[in-house]
Amino acid sequence: MRVLLATDGSDDARTATEWLSAFPLAPSTKALVVTVALPPPSALDIPTVREFKHEMAEAARVVAESARVVLARRWDAEAVVLEGDPRETIAATANAWSADIVVVGARGLGTFKRFLLGSVSSAIARHVHCPVLVVKGRPASLRTALVAIDGSPDSMAAARFLAALPLERTLTVRLLTAIEGPQYPSAIPGILAKTLHAALDELVREQAADAEKILARVGSDFVGPAAVIRRDVVVGPAADEIIQAAADAGVDLVVVGARGLGPIGKLLLGSVSEKVLHHVDCPVLIVKGREGIP
């Protein structure tokens, strides 16, 4: 496993470092800590400008080395300081280094003030070729993981990625599928409305039965690593249902596919994963279906 941690020394970045240091990864994991120093543009090559850039680089090295020391307690870890736009530099580095997972804080307000959820975090989730873990909230041990499943390749890959990790047997895995409820037309004569409602209710029951089969199949991947498996099928907009479930006490991680299948089979960072990323209060792991499983 190759894990890249992007940090800027902000509170969220330090939380990401602490969270990652306790995340269930194999002892053979290799970690790369990346800090991006982005000096303001200047055409002047004078001592004052050179000194400022040098100070920024030194501050970045301190930030990167501090995170490296934390990760080195568990894994082989190295640190690098790069220049450029963090959104482009981190994604390019992760792809070139063949990272298996990228970890980043939700937002940063540290020395370089560059990690802002909606720009860097979202850009990384879109452009890297591997899963992305966006950390927010307080550091906590992984006790309950909420995995959103809709049958799409990305959601199935998300479940397999989590199941392949060296999980604690005390972990509770909650598998959740949200069925988009039908729209019941109102301008229909009473006798026809009753028949139509019955047909739509039957459609929901059929979809729920299909969802249960998918969840049972996915749940079998966790029989070894996880002690408790919960399977829930709910009716409602997928993103809203995931966000509501993530608000339950004890949910420490939300796992979603980068893109999912909407009610008409259209590939939706995808609207669902993007909305979940922005609105839940715990770490979010976004997985792309075409990538390999560790």
Radius of gyration: 22 Å
Helix/sheet category: alpha/beta
How would you state the average pLDDT, rounded?
81
Spatial strand sequence of the major β-sheet? 3-2-1-4-5-10-9-6-7-8
- What is the count of DSSP helices, taking H or I runs of 4+ residues? 8
- Flag low-confidence runs: 109-118, 261-268
Portion in strands: 15-25%
Helix content: 25-40%
**Number of strand elements:** 10
How do the SSEs run, as a string of H and E? EHEHEHEHEEHEHEHEHE
Distance between the termini: 6 Å
The backbone outline, from C-alpha atoms, is elongated
How is the main sheet built? 10 strands, mixed
Description of the molecule:
- Helix 3 (86-96) runs parallel beside helix 4 (120-127) and helix 7 (238-246) packs parallel to helix 8 (271-279).
- 39% of the residues lie in helices and 20% in strands.
- It is built from 8 helices and 10 strands.
- By secondary structure, the chain is of the alpha/beta class.
- The protein has helices spanning 11-21, 47-71, 86-96, 120-127, 153-163, 190-219, 238-246, 271-279, and strands at 2-6, 30-37, 76-83, 101-105, 132-135, 144-148, 172-179, 228-235, 253-257, 284-287.
